[in-house]
Write a structure and sequence with these properties.
Layout: E1 12-20, E2 39-45, E3 52-54, H1 60-63, H2 76-93, E4 101-104, H3 112-117, E5 122-125, H4 129-137, E6 142-143, H5 149-157, E7 162-168, H6 177-187, E8 188-199, H7 201-206, E9 219-220, H8 223-232, E10 235-243, E11 249-256, H9 266-278, H10 289-309, E12 314-317, H11 321-330, E13 340-341, E14 359-360, H12 362-368, E15 372-375, H13 381-387, E16 397-400, E17 406-407
Parallel strand pairs: 4-5, 4-7, 5-6, 7-8, 12-13, 12-15, 13-14, 15-16
Antiparallel strand pairs: 1-2, 2-3, 3-9, 8-11, 10-11, 16-17
């Protein structure tokens, strides 16, 4: 395998999470007795550009199909984040009814709806047809396709170019990151702005967030590496923010290198220096991550086995991709966790891949009254603890597995 960016041969393993199905490949009851496709989940570090990347076994068109079950609008905190972002962009850059905001991976229109409320023209680009249909129902015009240079050229040739081009949690999802960034260069107006949000690799390493590794995520990104990838396509970083979403993310701001209208913020050099001081531009930083993941595995399995011996019931909350990575790496099945609650009706009455744990609604949790509830989307811990505070009424406790096992 060779690096997706600099083409160097990859031999340095960042972490090997063994084999697992695609993390969002939920099963119907009828599929439980059928074979499941498992794919290696091994991640490498490039010693030249420090791009951390998974080998592409699972093809993207098989993951992002018409039955994709992730809908952004089921998280209230994520909607709040989206609205706040729309307000900030319009205040900072003055977008109005003469502007065009294009979102790549626009999902169900969760974000563009807030620009639309301000009468700012919007266009979504979303490869999953079922989420795109929901967006269209909100009045968000959506192109159903994967983004890259081909689509970018087609749109640009029709005069469709972005004043603001954005993507939240998509940069890590693209198998050909170079083609993707090249496409952004193509579709951006001469004085346009790109913002991208993605989980920061520094947070992944330092907070043991190995459960954010799954087949849909092809890349794990530092600011240093993303800056290099963008620069290679003639795009320049002019600002960056560290934000709390998804356990610690970056929001980058980019422009055409030729665009002299935007000053380079001191935040750019400050974050590059911060990463350098952490050691992120040396291979030593990426060693020993496997051992950290193993400790979490042993601690979680030890907890579950202890509860099983004591006849205590354990449920989960949040049928999130990260929960599936964690459970599959740990080898957890439905004999150790009884069920998982999720607010998304598209996941309810299905079963988690590999573990075959049933996904149920919140009413089932209230009826069963388990002694422990494991919060799998730990990045939404506060939201979920508040929402499920009533489990304390029957003596229930919350369990947070990442960055270390914690019982609340």
């Amino acid at each position: 395998m060779h690096c997706r960016f600099c083409k160097r041969e990859l031999t340095d393993t960042f972490i090997d999470l063994i084999n697992s199905p695609a993390s969002n490949s939920f099963l119907t009851k009828e599929q439980l007795n059928e074979p499941e496709a498992y794919y290696p989940l091994k991640v490498y570090t490039c010693p030249k550009c420090f791009l951390v990347q998974v080998d592409e076994y699972k093809k993207s068109d098989a993951i992002f199909n018409s039955d994709y079950v992730y809908f952004s609008s089921y998280s209230t905190s994520w909607l709040q984040h989206a609205k706040k972002y729309a307000d900030k962009m319009c205040d900072r850059f003055g977008f109005n009814n003469n502007s065009l905001v294009i979102e790549i991976a626009s999902n169900d229109g969760y974000l563009l709806q807030y620009f639309k409320e301000k009468n700012v023209p919007v266009l979504g680009i979303e490869p999953t047809s079922n989420t795109a249909e929901v967006a269209k129902g909100k009045g968000v015009e959506t192109v159903v396709d994967f983004f890259g240079t081909t689509l970018a050229r087609n749109l640009a040739d029709k005069g469709t170019k972005a004043d603001l081009l954005l993507g939240n949690n998509v940069l890590a999802h693209v198998p050909d990151i170079v083609d993707f960034v090249k496409g952004m260069k193509t579709i951006l107006k001469d004085d346009g702005v790109i913002t991208m949000e993605f989980p920061h690799l520094m947070q992944l390493v330092e907070n043991n967030q190995f459960d954010t590794i799954y087949h849909e995520h092809f890349s794990y990104l530092s600011f240093y590496t993303v800056k290099e990838i963008f620069a290679a396509q003639g795009l320049e970083m002019f600002d960056v923010e560290e934000i709390p979403t998804h356990g610690g993310s970056l929001r980058i701001y980019a422009k055409h290198k030729e665009d002299g209208s935007k000053a380079i913020s001191p935040n750019v050099e400050a974050l590059l220096l911060k990463e350098k001081n952490k050691g992120m531009t040396s291979m030593e930083y990426y060693n020993n991550f496997q051992d950290k993941a193993l400790k979490i595995k042993l601690d979680l399995l030890g907890f579950l086995l202890e509860q099983k011996r004591n006849n205590k019931s354990v449920a989960g909350y949040g049928a999130a991709a990260k929960g599936n990575t964690l459970m599959n790496y740990c080898g957890i099945k439905n004999d150790l966790i009884d069920f998982v609650v999720d607010a998304n009706p598209h996941k309810q009455n299905k079963f988690l891949p590999a573990s075959h744990i049933p996904v149920v609604n919140e009413a089932y949790l209230k009826a069963q009254k388990p002694e422990f509830v494991i919060i799998f989307p730990w990045n939404l811990k506060e939201e979920i603890v508040n929402q499920l505070a009533y489990i304390k009424d029957w003596g229930g406790k919350f369990v947070i597995p990442i960055p270390q096992l914690q019982i609340l």
